[in-house]
Amino acid sequence: MQPVLFTNGQLFLPHAASPADSVYVEDGVIRAIGKTAELRLQLAGRDYRTVDWDGGCVLPGLVDAHMHLGMHGMKLGMLDFTEAASKEEMLAMLRARAAVTPPGEWILGLNWNENNFPDGKIPHLLELDEITTEHPVYLTRTCFHAYLGNSEAFRRAGVTADTPDPESGAFGRGLDGRLNGCIYENASAPFADVQPVPDPSMLKTVMFQACQDALRLGLTGAHTEDLRLLGSVEAMLRIHRELKEEGLYFRTHQLMYHGFLDEMEALGIQAGSGSNWNRIGAVKLFADGAIGGRTALLKEAYYDAPHTRGLAMHSPEELREIVGRARKLGYPVAFHAIGDGAAEMMTEVLEQLPLSREARLPDRFIHAQVVHPDAVKRMSKLNLAVDLQPRFVASDFPWVLERVGPDRTSWLYAWKKWLLTGLPCSGGSDAPIEPLNPLLGIHAAVTRRKPEESHEGYMPEEKLSITEAIRLFTSGSAGAAGEAGQRGSIELGKYADFTVVDRNLADGMDPDDLLRTSVRMTIVNGKIGYRA
Length: 532
Fold this sequence. Notes:
Layout: E1 4-7, E2 10-11, E3 22-26, E4 29-34, H1 36-42, E5 49-52, E6 57-60, E7 62-67, H2 69-75, E8 79-80, H3 87-100, E9 107-112, H4 125-131, E10 137-141, E11 146-149, H5 151-157, E12 169-173, E13 179-185, H6 189-194, H7 200-216, E14 219-224, H8 227-230, H9 233-245, E15 251-257, H10 261-267, E16 278-286, H11 316-328, E17 333-337, H12 340-352, E18 363-367, H13 373-379, E19 384-388, H14 391-396, H15 399-404, H16 415-420, E20 425-427, H17 438-447, H18 466-472, H19 475-480, E21 498-501, E22 519-524, E23 527-531
Parallel strand pairs: 1-5, 2-6, 7-14, 8-9, 9-10, 14-15, 15-16, 16-17, 17-18, 18-19, 19-20
Antiparallel strand pairs: 1-3, 3-4, 6-21, 10-11, 11-13, 12-13, 21-22, 22-23
Helix pairs in contact: 2-7, 7-9, 11-12
């Protein structure tokens, strides 16, 4: 690879002793930082090419620390209800899709959110049947922990009104006991089992499209969990190897779903192994569900539903078994825990089966939305990174306050407090649940409100500065992956990963300017992966 001198940029260097506007890169690594004229003198006589940043703001390469690349790629071809503002709009979109879908084929959709509807109502099974009984319909809620199906989907799944609820799951029923179309948590398994399995070429295409979309949005890498979609560790490794060989420049850090531990052991792959393009990370597990569908596990009952505390995906004994198995294989764990009850369960397990302080990769606490202060104190003593999704604030407030009530707000989406604990904190989107665009995540972290709103923000004491929010997606993501020495900041010896935007992002700017910011260029390993 020919060396490159990148010039004429506004470099994001919060602690730089002197200003700089240029970076010299050899073999994908930053070898010099300074003013253009100075670097040209130093490089006199060398063979290199020049790339002009044209005055753009140059950030360390933004990395999404928690998302699902495969599902994001699948979303690009699915019925997307993100902008639906009512049940009626959902049904109209479904009707239009049914009209152009061959009979017998599945109609899949995602990202419906009744909390954005004026009356909070969602389609009933009978309303889905009125639109079509020729297609099985299966619609995924924005949280990916609740679903809707029509009668044909239930028929193919073999679920009837007499089918008992599975452990850690439920089929929605009316007062008369009849199915209403709702499906919760592990009850989704029989529906997934009967849906068409994408063939290998389609899965590879989906992954390629997702990575290309991420590059377009300014992301140079992502921490992703795709094994449940791709079907095997071997398939995941092969797809990413082939994509790189075919010229894709995008870095991935893989969270390994615990259901694939047998294959991981058989293949002998270790945490931290892999290449600089696709690296193996922690073992992923779910401790609970989500607040929107009231399946996140709380210590006390939901404020607006006193009959339930949510659902535990595993018993404490099962959690110890999974974590113990991961430890024997040398893996940290990355656990999804949204409710304070789930966070407490996982804290107890990690205290009983602690990760060594010398471990290359930390354990990871994913989401951290409702947490009890006592659990935070205990967590601060562990080798633990916290994966935050700032955009959840924009999506979940104000309705989340109805779920948890007034007595559980001290550590509710408490991004600022998490930074003050000293634990490494990273930033992600959880796409396709939230938009993949990292600038929307940074905006949410800084404003604590929806883009179209103008108030001071929900729980404004938890707002982050622009610099703090950018660091979630740069140095924070690098730390969570055990790569702080390789990426996350613009420094000598680190990889030449840059996100170039069209305006200077700095503390004191109008945060709403983030919504008007465009990505000019995404550079990975010194190579341009995207140019506007």
